[in-house]
UniProtKB/TrEMBL annotation:
InterPro entries: Asp/Orn_carbamoyltranf_P-bd, Asp/Orn_carbamoylTrfase_sf. This is Aspartate/ornithine carbamoyltransferase carbamoyl-P binding domain-containing protein. SUPFAM superfamilies: Aspartate/ornithine carbamoyltransferase. Residues 5-144 form the Aspartate/ornithine carbamoyltransferase carbamoyl-P binding domain. GO terms for biological process: amino acid metabolic process.
Amino acid sequence: MNKIKHFSQVNDFTKEDFDEVFRRAKIFDVKGKDFTHVAPGKVLGLGFFQESTRTASGLQSAIIRLGGGWNGIPSPAGSYVNIGEESMDDTLNSLSDSADILGIRHKNFDLATYSKKATVPLINGMCGGDEHSAGALGMAYTIAKKMGKMDNLKVGMYGMVKSSRPSKAITRLLAKYGATFYVDPVIPEFNTPDYIKKEAEASGAKFITAPVKDFIGEVDYFSVIEGLPQAGEDPKHLEAYNKDFQIMGKKDFALLGKQSSFSYGMPGAMTDGRMIVNMTEADADSRCITHAMLKDWTAVMMALITYLLDIKVK
């Protein structure tokens, strides 16, 4: 019997694993083609104990387009976990009894530890404090699709990396391809955590902390990070962050290279009510790949699901 594969964290996968998922995603990334013969009868169980728009719907769409279906808990409302009557382990064990694969979202559950006793493959749909592993996978696919490469990218980040699970996950993923990261965290307290830097540097990545104006014209891909922090951040840090954060718009994006691309985090609101970018101006720029990422998302999740289930895709 084959060992169960999981995507509970980015480091579950090697570079070769990611290459295979991206190969599959290219096959599924064909509008209007029927793939319902690929995984008929397969069931995706959702255990989403935090709100989700894009991740949950993308996973649901992926399994349906593969010919399967889904069940489970697509939102926290009414779940036994959220009212304190059942543990996460017990709930996931029960979902596993009626599903072939699980997609999980929870603010602090350690999915990597649970994976050691899981009976079906697991997908991290933003679980725990460190990662949105599935989100990073989708981001990386669209970045590579737009740029025509994955290796040795220059990646710019503006915002609270420390409190962004997608940003921490994409850092770990692109580090495996030798990326150089240029980071403006607005205030030092929101810079990339040292333990993630050390992990990434061990994979060949490099880090440069600098004001965004000093690197925006040099990067291949630029990310404006979502402005809503994880629970527990120091209110004084948030106040300082909001004071110094500059909303990105047309004048800023004009500084990007003609062949570069950029995206902005969603949801795009900040704690002071502002939005991280002028979305009208951002969306009007042909280099903005935020919505391209969302459109590609289902194909990437189809690729991930089939890979974890050991379904051959040629």
